[in-house]
Amino acid sequence: MAFPWQEITWVLLDMDGTLLDKHFDDYFWETLVPQEFARRQNLPLEEARQTVFARYRREEGTLNWTDIDFWSRELDLDIPALKESIRHLIEVHPDAEEFLQFLRQKGKKIALVTNAHYKTLDLKMNHTGLLGYFDEVISSFDLGVPKEEVGFWQILKDRLGFSPAHTILVDDNAEVLAAAQHFGLKYLFFKAKSSSQLAPENSPHFPSLLSFHELME
Ligand SMILES: [Mg+2]
Does the pTM of the predicted model rise above 0.85? Predict the structure, then answer.
């Protein structure tokens, strides 16, 4: 069944994992940062990995998690410079730009809605050239509330003036979709293929998309 696009005014899209290949972030946090931390602290790699991963777990779901300045201090590493050093690994999902063009043709309002820190956001938008597709770019980091909290969606609604019944959100984080659902957002999709290097994972709670083409029929 074709998606009822005539019902939709606003399209809210997550960045990492949804429009962009999450492999960049996974490689950065799971491989490069532990390596650099090991080098800097003069630790065996496995010990460095355990230390760094324990600190990640402590901050999951908080704004610290996406605050690269926090991680620079916490790990005594220059996180923005490290990200910059692998910017060539930033990739747009193969179907993402086509979908953005499709939405433009349909005259939909498009917002990039991300938990990413503005420095990461700038780096990725500069590298991918996607910025021109968006009517609004919202970083939850600037709003002070992560997308996993219901309150974020209220602030966003006030900011954009969208009607929850006429808005679609695509995200690769089920917790984010659950918060948006709780708020009353009607059309929610889980991006099942978030990384080019990982098998897709469906959500038991939300309709899952392997590809944006499923919404373009
Ligand atoms: Mg994401």
Answer: yes
